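tool=predict chain=A
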Amino acid sequence: MHIKELINAGLSKNEAKVYLAGLELGETSVYRLAKKSGVKRSTTYLAVESLKEKGLMSSYHSKNATICSSENPKKLANVLEERKKALDKIMPELLAFNNLIDKKPKIKYFEGSGAYKEVFEDVLKYSGTEMLGMFNERFWDYEKYFTGHFMPKRKEKKIWARILFRDSPELRQISQEGDKHFFQSKLVPSEKFKIEIEMVVYGKNKIGMVSYDEEMAIIIESQKIYDTQKSIFEVIWDLGSTKK
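tool=predict ok
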């Protein structure tokens, strides 16, 4: 039996060394156990106590010395079997807890003048999908990034986009370039579409929100939130928007 295997079985490195030394020496003092194992004497005491708790070592006091002995290696197998039984017993509860965590929305938060890029670079990871966007005029302040990088990349990755623009002269211009940039857009009267942030619904379960003024962005990964936001988008797209 080697130290590596004992570590894989759940012992610490010092516990493994002390246990093996005990097997070789039989009943022995902590002093000899420390010397044989190469573990500091103070640490050997701690390892002995830990091994006793695991049922792998016993000790008793004799005059001025503590005499220790390692238990039969078969005891280690028994200990591991008991641990497995205990783990199997609580496994259903652990899995239920894990499933609960998986169902919670995953949220990533970004700050800084380039925070918006975190959202749009994430969109580019989903080739062959559709992106739904609600944009105001502020994205035009970053024209170099969008027209020079994001839009060409999105087209290259065949990510089709449907975009709701707040009606303004700047956005009327870009809305007329749908074929060029691989998207379809509709203009919504500005008095009815007072969005101060931009939002994209993309992938299969992600929502990205960008606030340029606050220099922050959020990515939410949640099927329920995704389905809800997509439904809201579709209602505006079908009933509340005007195509340009």
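The chain has a mean pLDDT of 84. The chain has two domains: 3-75, 106-243.
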